[in-house]
Amino acid sequence: MSEDRKVGILGLGSYLPELGSYLPEKILTNKDLEKMVDTTDDWIMERTGIKERRIARADEATSDMATEAAKRALADAKLKPEDLDLIIVATITPDMFFPATACLVQQKIGARQVPAFDISVACSGFIYGIAIANQFIKSGTYKHALVVAAEKLSAVTDWQDRSTCVLFGDGAGAAVLGPVEKGGILSVYLGADGRQGELIKMPAGGSRIPATHKSVDERLHFIKMNGTELFRHAVKIMADAALQATQPLGLKAEDLSLVIPHQANIRILNAVAKRMGLSTDKIYLNISKYGNMSAASSAVALVEAVKEGRIKKGDKILLDAFGGGLTWGAMVIEW
Ligand code: ACO
Predict the structure, then answer these.
(1) Residue 3: pLDDT band by 50, 70, 90 thresholds?
(2) DSSP 117
(3) For the chain, does the N or the C end have fewer beta carbons within 10 angstroms?
(4) Is the CB of residue 162 below 6 angstroms from any atom belonging to ligand 1?
(5) Would you put residue 167 in left (φ > 0), alpha (ψ -120 to 50) or beta?
(6) Which CATH number fits domain 7-181: 3.40.47.10, 3.30.1540.10, 1.10.510.10, 3.90.1640.10?
(7) DSSP strand E in 80-214: where?
(8) Is the pLDDT of residue 70 over 80?
């Protein structure tokens, strides 16, 4: 198969309660949070841009949301589960350590026994997943790949910690990738910096600190975060990643129709737009409705932007994300 085979997104889907007929999904508003921790709607809106977020049901795990998103993406691509050659799930909140959530999704959607694996790169997961699928399809190894980004962050959020619990939400988005005639993925830029790994992590539950009564009592199974430092890195990293993905193509900020960023904080995104010399109306935002859904954020944002008609055939868009690890990624896609 030729090396310059073009790869694009053939279909998209997301798991969001109001889009599905089968689930009355819970909305947790800032007003609700005011009753849980010492915070205010004004503080959360002003510091983050978040108004509300979705919380999955207790009996609903990441693979359930991922499966729904996957089915919708397949339907949108007009493909069947048996057409898939590869399944990747990006998540830091898998149903369990193993089997991989991707294997659970494979079984639930009724796909063939094709390769299925998870990737753990936090908020950059959707972009990393698309980048991996792109390589397999471009090389001719596989034809159709499913990339799902799904998170149940509410399961690892400390609901007594006001500095983190106001930020996160649950959700899932999915894309089916395959060969395209024109456009598709034009550039990919990925990176990581393990030196900054301490800035956001879930300390316990792995082999370093296995679950014990003590680890649970010390609340080590929840997200711990240095928000101020992350904020600083995020602005610099996302602006730089945007440059690394656009410059090799000779593209300037004004050539982009829309930027689909990871939705961590509206102030981060405004600062990134400023650094890029981009007007803020070219940055797609849905953070007010969903908060930070880690890997799922950029996936759901892409789905919604397409549904709202913000992305049209021939548009060049930029996906741009950073997350725990630290990790980051950006890619230009011609729609
Ligand atoms: N309500 C009211 N007050 C609060 C709250 C809250 N929910 N949370 C913190 N405060 C207080 C602090 O205690 C502090 O009080 P003090 O001045 O008396 O000490 C004050 O507000 C200011 O706190 P800061 O942490 O300095 O506030 P900041 O403006 O930095 O905003 C925030 C905090 C929103 C977390 C910001 O730093 C941020 O968004 N950082 C980036 C986080 C991020 O991107 N995380 C995810 C990346 S990786 C991933 O997504 C998996």
Answers:
(1) low
(2) E
(3) N
(4) yes
(5) alpha
(6) 3.40.47.10
(7) 86-90, 116-119, 145-152, 170-179, 184-192, 200-201
(8) yes
- Cα separation, 246 vs 317, in Å, equals 10
pLDDT, tens digit (0-9, with 9 covering 90-100), for 171-223: 999 999 999 999 999 999 999 999 999 999 999 999 999 999 999 999 999 99
Q: Which atom of ligand 1 is nearest to the CA of 162?
A: 7
Residue nearest to atom 1 of ligand 1 (CA): 39
Closest ligand 1 atom to 264 CA? 44
Question: Per-domain residue ranges for the chain?
Answer: 7-181, 186-334
Q: Nearest-CA neighbor of 253 among 236, 237, 272?
A: 272
Residue 244 amino acid letter: Q
Whether the CB-CB separation of 295 and 168 falls below 8 Å is answered with no
Task: Indicate whether residue 149 lines ligand 1 (CB < 6 A).
Answer: no
Find the distance separating the first CA and the last CA of the chain, reported in whole Å.
23
Q: Could you tell me the sign of the dihedral formed by the alpha carbons of 84, 90, 94, 100, in that order?
A: positive
Specify the length of the chain in residues.
335
What pairs with residue 9 in β-bridges? 177
Count Cα atoms within 13 angstroms, Cβ side, for 68: 21
Fold match, 7-181 / 186-334:
yes
Q: Is the pLDDT of residue 17 over 70?
A: no
CATH 3.40.47.10 fits 186-334, yes or no: yes
In short, whether 294's Cβ falls inside 6 Å of ligand 1 is yes
Q: Residue 140: name the closest of 184, 186, 179, 187 by CA.
A: 179
Residue 25 has pLDDT above 80, yes or no: no
Amino acid 6 reads: K
Check pLDDT > 80 for residue 246. Answer: yes
Helix 101-109 to helix 62-77 angle (10° resolution) is 50
The one-letter amino acid code at 134 reads N
Considering only CA atoms, which of 76, 69, 73 is closest in space to residue 54?
Answer: 69
